[in-house]
Amino acid sequence: MPIVVNQKGICPHCKTSNRFEQATDTGSTNYPKRLIISGPEDKHFLLQMCRCTNCSEVIIFFKDNMIYPLGATRPPCPSEVPEAISQDYKEACLVEQYSKKAAAALTRRCLQTMLHDQGIKKKDLNEEIEEAITKLPSHLSKAIDAIRHIGNFATHPIKYQYTGEIVEV
Predict the structure, then answer these.
(1) Is residue 76 one of the residues assigned to a domain?
(2) pLDDT value at position 166?
(3) How many CB atoms lie within 10 A of CB 25?
(4) How many angstroms separate the most distant Cα atoms in the chain?
(5) Last residue of some domain: 18, 34, 68?
(6) pTM (2 d.p.)
(7) What's the CA gap between 134 and 115, in Å, rounded?
(8) CB 10 within 8 A of CB 17
(9) What does the alpha-carbon distance between residue 11 and residue 72 come to, in Å, rounded to a whole number?
(10) Cα(17)–Cα(34) distance, integer angstroms
(11) CA triplet 140, 144, 148: central angle to 5 degrees?
């Protein structure tokens, strides 16, 4: 949902609740609040821009999707997360809007990296999760098992033994 000029919201840049204003006169460039873009078959698309009154950063929406800043719809990765996992998480956040399959693959990689860091290495992620479930507290094992079942269905609706196969998510 787009941020609306002259209304309150959470800024994707500074993460504070404040009012947004028309994004004009930001430095040497003037940004219009709304710009109608003509597309194929006489379809029109709306490009909207506003600015945070707290940090003065610009937020841009195209067809109600935030296109700047990218990846801002997800919370930042906690500082205690290892760098390799943090980088994959950040990349998943950046591509999520454009490719759910790519974001899902990167998220799966994050999970598999975490399991490998814990010494759990099997022939596929399904078996690794199966082993992890036996070592986790019940509230975590139920959550990871649910994620596994959803992921198995989403990525491998026929059989999840085809690890590298990517299908509609």
Answers:
(1) no
(2) 53
(3) 10
(4) 59
(5) 68
(6) 0.60
(7) 13
(8) yes
(9) 9
(10) 22
(11) 170
pLDDT in tens, the chain (169 residues): 556 667 788 888 888 888 777 765 444 344 445 555 656 666 666 777 888 888 888 888 777 777 888 777 778 889 999 999 999 998 988 888 778 778 888 888 888 899 999 999 999 888 999 899 998 898 988 888 877 776 666 566 555 455 555 555 5
Q: Quick one: tokens of 48?
A: 């909207």
Structure tokens at 28: 């040497």
Residue 1 domain-assigned? no
Q: What is the DSSP string of the chain?
A: ----TTSEEE-TTT--EEEEEE---BTTB---SEEEEE-GGG-EEEEEEEEETTT--EEEEETTEEEESTTTTSPPPPTTS-HHHHHHHHHHHHHTTT-HHHHHHHHHHHHHHHHHHTT---SSHHHHHHHHHHHS-HHHHHHHHHHHHHHHHHH-SS-TT-TT-----
For 97, 141, 142, the CA distances from 148, given in Å and listed in that order, are 22, 10, 10
Domain that holds residue 116: 83-155
| Residue 78 domain flag | no
Exposed (0-12), middle (13-18) or buried (19+): which is 52, by Cβ within 10 Å?
buried
Q: Cβ of 117: how many Cβ atoms within 10 Å?
A: 11
